[in-house]
From TrEMBL:
Domain Flavin reductase like: 20-172
Domain of life: Bacteria
Source organism phylogeny: Bacteria, Pseudomonadati, Pseudomonadota, Alphaproteobacteria, Rhodobacterales
GO molecular function: FMN binding; oxidoreductase activity, acting on the CH-NH group of donors, NAD or NADP as acceptor
InterPro entries, alphabetized: Flavin_Rdtase-like_dom (IPR002563), Split_barrel_FMN-bd (IPR012349)
Any matching Pfam family: Flavin_Reduct
SUPFAM superfamilies linked: FMN-binding split barrel (SSF50475)
Source organism of the structure: Jannaschia faecimaris
Protein's name in the database: NADH-FMN oxidoreductase RutF, flavin reductase (DIM6/NTAB) family
Length: 200
């Protein structure tokens, strides 16, 4: 099968998200004058080591947010956001926080997760998350397409849950990271193997 996206795929559901998978989930927390917000984004990744930087993209809008979503509106106001890493045990809370709630509704309360104050930015984070990355916005990029926006942020603080550190290594197997596949499908990391680069 071959298709040009502008012509449509002719399938019951768009295969693009399933092709580009698995994708890590950035559980983004923000704060603004309307209150605190928490929402998952699967267009998310780390993009640089020094200084450490991450990005996530928002690809839809809410009627009460002027062609964007709560996370994007709030970080535009505050200039900061926090990325919380999602473990398998928090899958239901993560999913609950994806509901399209009115602006100002607190997803921390809806999802039943602990809210903790960040250290380097004025923003909440998810208490008990395996790791949280406090970020200051460095760039907001408008992408082609309706409501498509990418945000880049520099990591200014890193929280790591103590039980996720094993012999000085952040052990992803200790919490089974959740990842997004296509459609309504997710997966978790359950097996690990290592590969040495050819020049090592």
């Amino acid at each position: 099968m071959f298709y040009r996206p502008e012509d449509g795929h002719g399938l019951p559901h768009n295969p693009f998200n399933a092709i580009v998978s698995p994708r890590p989930i950035g559980w983004i927390s923000t704060r603004s004058t309307l209150g605190d917000n928490l929402a998952p984004y699967s267009f998310f990744n780390a993009v640089a080591y020094v200084p450490p930087q991450v990005m996530f993209a928002s690809t839809s809008a809410k009627p009460d947010r002027d062609n964007t979503k709560d996370s994007m509106a709030q970080l535009r106001e505050s200039g900061v956001f926090c990325v919380n890493i999602v473990e398998y045990a928090m899958r239901d809370a993560m999913n609950a926080s994806s509901a399209a709630l009115p602006a100002g509704e607190d997803e921390f309360a809806i999802a039943g997760v602990e809210k903790v104050q960040c250290d380097t930015i004025d923003c909440p984070r998810v208490g008990g998350a395996p790791a949280s990355l406090e970020c200051k916005v460095t760039q907001i990029v408008t992408l082609p397409g309706a409501s498509n926006v990418a945000v880049f942020g520099e990591v200014t603080g890193v929280h790591i849950r103590d039980d996720c550190l094993k012999d000085g290594i952040f052990d992803v197997m200790s919490f089974s990271p959740l990842a997004r596949l296509g459609y309504k499908d997710y997966t978790r990391v359950e097996r690990l193997f290592s590969l040495a680069r050819p020049d090592e």
